[in-house]
Amino acid sequence: MKSVVIEQPGELVVAERPLPQPAAGEVRVKVAYASICGSDVHIWHGHNPFAKYPRVIGHEFFGVIDAVGDGVDPARLGDRVAVDPVVSCGSCYPCSVGRPNVCTTLQVIGVHRDGGFSEFALAPAKNAFSLPDSIPDRLASLVEPFTIAANITAFLKPQPDDVALIYGAGPMGLTAIQVLKGVYKVKKVMVVDRLPERLALAEQSGADQLFDNSEIPLAAQLEGVQPTLIIDAACHPTILAEAAALASPAARIGLLGFSGEPCSITQQSLTSKELSLFTSRLNSNRFPQVIEWMEKGLIQPEKLVTHYFPLQEIERAMTLFEKDPRTCCKVILQMG
Ligand code: NAI
Ligand code: MN
Ligand code: ZN
């Protein structure tokens, strides 16, 4: 089979690899579509501290089960599945409280073990979620990025009368906008980005008000409006302090970033308004919820997609994705 392998940081190849056999409890998925995420680019460049090399990347993928290991119901052969990349132990403290995404021995498919930029991929059978026919193959790899928005909004508990502010209109910001508008029916969702092209995508995804902070700081444009719910999907370390300053008293702030840089913030700026901070990593069992949202048409994954490429053009696809955020948002690889 052909697989996209990062042999070592900086070295991306499409390699011929032996077809893997599913172990007990696993399924093999014949991958049909897989989408590129910023973290795939980070593994390529050696900027992901968790990745081990060589690695088949890709954690957002969809396909059909074509082999099952011992103990897996053969009736699952032929199932169309989206794969949850979060592999957890099931028994540690975070697993025991329903937080497998921060399992003490967390393994992420495509990061800690081989992933979905490949003609075939292995996964635990319980990570392979069967999809209804109403979710088309070409959009099914986008279940995973929407689980990020599902996870953070589960903490933030959006309400219809919230005044929401989202930093960043990349894939993460757009999924958050769609979930706030389509699922939680939040009346006002404001979005700030530095790129007008990204703000145009935010508008298409349902944002009510757009701010370009490339020249004028956001604070000067908000005219005193104090957001009650803020999601940082741009993830620059300076944003938290700004968000705390702009937030309404009693607001909730959701953070998604992984920067190793310190961010400077006073206790007073948080405590005087009694702000709640939530962080969110990947997803905790959110695949069924997102699949239901897609099935009901509450979210529109097609609005994120700008490009499709065949697997063989992976390097071109990853380079475009990385270098050209003005024309590119979600890029999907087509296998076979
Ligand atoms: P992206 O880079 O495509 O989007 C970020 C957007 O923020 C861009 O449109 C950029 O122009 C904008 N931006 C950057 N600095 C800004 C600022 N100071 N003010 C306003 N806008 C600004 O990235 P993507 O894929 O949307 O991911 C966003 C972040 O989410 C990344 O940092 C990524 O590491 C993180 N992430 C976290 C996950 C989690 O589970 N916690 C999962 C996936 C991504
Ligand atoms: Mn991703
Ligand atoms: Zn665990």
User: How many beta-strand segments?
Assistant: 18
| Weakly predicted, low-confidence segments | none
Just name the CATH architecture of the largest domain: Alpha-Beta Complex
* The CATH fourth-level homologous superfamily of the largest domain: Medium-chain alcohol dehydrogenases, catalytic domain
How much helicity do the residues have?
A: 25-40%
Q: Whole-number radius of gyration? A: 20 Å
Structural class: alpha/beta
User: What's the SSE pattern?
Assistant: EEEHEEEEHEEEHEHEHEHEHEHEHEHE
Q: How many structural domains?
A: 2
Strand content: 25-35%
How many helices? The count is 10
The CATH top-level class label of the largest domain: Alpha Beta
Bound molecules: 1,4-dihydronicotinamide adenine dinucleotide, manganese (II) ion, zinc ion
User: What is the CATH topology of the largest domain?
Assistant: Quinone Oxidoreductase, Chain A, domain 1
Largest sheet composition:
7 strands, mixed
Mean pLDDT: 98
Oligomer: single chain
**What separation lies between the terminal Cα atoms?**
10 Å
What spatial form do the alpha-carbon principal axes imply? globular
Cofactor: Zn(2+)
Pfam family, one: ADH_zinc_N
Organism: [Curtobacterium] plantarum
GO molecular function: oxidoreductase activity
